[in-house]
Amino acid sequence: MSNSRQSDVVPPPPHQRILLVLIIVISRMLAQDGGVQFIKTKEAVVTKIWSPPCHGYEPFVRACSVSYYLFMLFVAWTPGGKNESKASSRTNQVLVIQTIGPFLYAHHVTGSITGYRTVKRLGIPDSNIILMLADDVSCNARNKFPATVYSNNRRSLDLYGENIEVDYRGYEVTVENFLRLLTGRVDPSVPRSKRLLTDERSNIFVYMTGHGGAEFLKFQDNEEISAFDIADAFEQMWQKKRYHEIFFMIDTCQANTMYSKFYSPNILATGSSEIGESSYSYVNDADIGVAVIDRYTHLVLSFLEGINKTSQATMQELRQFDAYDFNHMRSHAGIRTDLFARNPSEVLLTDFFGGVTQTEVVDLTTELSLTSDIASVSETNGTRMQPSSVRSFDHQWEKVERQAHLQAWQGWVGSMALCIMLVIGYLSFN
């Protein structure tokens, strides 16, 4: 039995469909003009409605225009009334966490920012990325090059730049905030930009780096998170339908022990070192006196720099890269696949690191049908439009819609009666 969930939209129940159809039929009898059309898909029944022109109708009949718009609102709020193509059903989210504060660990900050820049280059917007940095290395007094962060001693590219958005900084990076972020149990005052807005269709890439040991990772040198804490948080996310698949990557000493306690489905995990092994830095910068990036992170991101948004590179190819070679790493990087439903050779790197383009599949026959109906409504209002494409009617249709709105509000008494009927119908579903 597969653990993956279906992302198709659930159709409305039969009794709900019957009531919706009755409302439409009654409104149609009251106003012979206008249009009501059903578009049947595999996922749901979508009803497209537009207002009759109302010119010359009695006030109560004009009120049907308002009822149409109220009904559109009712359909939008009702489960099953939403139609999404499979091409736009998945979203990718990224959570990058650097957990240790002192300037001595500046290489962890550099690795986090480099990963942040990589996923942005591959199409994931800042709105889908949560960046947590325990220390602001760029503004640290020990940084000889203020307001900059570099990943090598040549300092050819400033990683900090002008387009970085840090969501949690300094002492905001705590175990509590991290767990609340994963499980969605944040305070109501927390803005949307600092929340992990995911659902059962979301693929999440979680990257963690810092100073750790066997089954723990330090936060700010005064608290730590255990492998059990993360495992239980992921299980809560699965139970609350907050993810579809997770790719968990951690770069710290004895990193592989941090995913050893995972038990939730659809999680692919990888780490930089086995139990008893250290995770090493890659290069030092003599001018600032510390290492500037971790070895494992550097090798993984070097591989990702060679792909683009349309790349067909898979997780299996990443495993065969230098990042998983002891001669380059000086430790044994690991990967855990037993919880993951798919074979790594079938998982594209862009399934987690790349942005998902939102697309909509339009049925040509539906578009032509809508075109002819809109054209007929426009002629009734004295506006002539050529039925070549639905999009060509935008400007004219706005005029028709505004006119219908103004005339419809003259029958507000009748619309209130229909509104009450809609509310009663909505409450009957709950």
Please, could you describe this protein's structure?
The chain crosses the membrane at residues 409-429. Residues 1-31 form the signal peptide. Belongs to the peptidase C13 family. With 430 residues, the protein is of the alpha/beta class. It folds into 2 domains: 14-84 and 360-427, no CATH class; 88-353, Rossmann fold, CATH 3.40.50. The chain has helices spanning 14-30, 59-77, 106-121, 175-183, 227-239, 295-304, 315-319, 326-329, 350-353, 364-380, 394-408, 412-427; strands spanning 35-40, 45-50, 91-98, 129-133, 168-169, 202-209, 212-213, 216-219, 223-226, 245-251, 267-271, 281-285, 290-294, 334-336. The protein has a 7-stranded mixed beta sheet. A 3-stranded antiparallel beta sheet has the order 7-8-9. Strands 1-2 form a two-stranded antiparallel sheet. β7 (212-213) and β8 form a beta hairpin. α2 (59-77) crosses α11 (394-408), α2 (59-77) runs parallel beside α12 (412-427) and α3 (106-121) packs parallel to α6 (295-304). The chain is globular. 35% of the residues are buried.
